[in-house]
């Protein structure tokens, strides 16, 4: 069960087919099959539980960049840390340091910061233990979302 407190999360998403999408003002992108990590934060009502449940839901209005991809792909898991500290940019950077990471859509999820992107593509599922080693000052937990 996810906490209703504020925090930072990384969604682990699986896309089974090449998918061309128009992502708001970012434009048109093709998302290759494979795994994606998306770093975000939850600060609003309901905290991590509400935000991750919204992302995992199949019926929603596209509000954030990630909503466009999640209309086609599946959120398989979420890695998260509780607390008010803003960590999503550091987590996006940590995702890019994982083996065989690439940025599929520049600025995706990063319209309010200077990061290259908050969405990272992997050919194989990224390992929680490897990611946790890159953010050692954070107490991380993982949960399946489907």
* Unreliable residue runs: none
Largest sheet, if any? 5 strands, antiparallel
Helix-strand topology string: EEEEHHEHEHE
| Domains (count) | 1
Please give the count of helices.
4
% residues in beta strands: 25-35%
Shape: globular
Strand order, main sheet: write it out: 6-4-1-5-7
Count of extended strands: 7
- Gap from first CA to last CA: 12 Å
Cα gyration radius (Å): 14 Å
Mean pLDDT: 93
Pairing-aware structural class of the strands and helices?
A: alpha+beta
Q: Work out the helicity level.
A: 10-25%
Features:
146 residues; 4 helices; alpha+beta; 5-stranded antiparallel β-sheet
Describe this structure in words.
A hairpin with a 3-residue loop joins β2 and β3 (27-31). The chain has 4 helices and 7 strands; from the N terminus they run ββββααβαβαβ. The radius of gyration is 14 Å and the shape is globular. The protein has one domain (7-144). The mean pLDDT is 93. The chain is 22% helix and 31% strand. It is α+β, with helices and mostly antiparallel strands. The chain has a 5-stranded antiparallel beta sheet. The protein has a two-stranded antiparallel ribbon with strand order 2-3. The longest helix has 10 residues, at 47-56.
């Amino acid at each position: 069960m996810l906490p209703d407190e504020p925090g930072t999360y990384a969604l682990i998403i699986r896309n089974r087919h090449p998918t061309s999408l128009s992502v708001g003002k970012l434009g048109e992108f093709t998302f290759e099959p494979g795994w994606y990590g998306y770093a975000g934060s939850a600060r609003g009502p309901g905290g991590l539980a509400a935000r991750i449940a919204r992302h995992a839901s199949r019926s929603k209005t596209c509000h954030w960049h990630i909503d466009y991809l999640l209309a086609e792909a599946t959120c398989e898991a979420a890695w998260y840390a509780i607390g008010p500290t803003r960590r999503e940019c550091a987590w996006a950077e940590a995702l890019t340091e994982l083996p065989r990471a690439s940025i599929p859509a520049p600025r995706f999820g990063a319209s309010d910061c200077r990061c290259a992107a908050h969405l990272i593509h992997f050919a194989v599922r990224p390992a929680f233990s490897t990611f946790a080693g890159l953010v050692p000052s954070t107490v991380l937990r993982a949960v399946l979302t489907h």
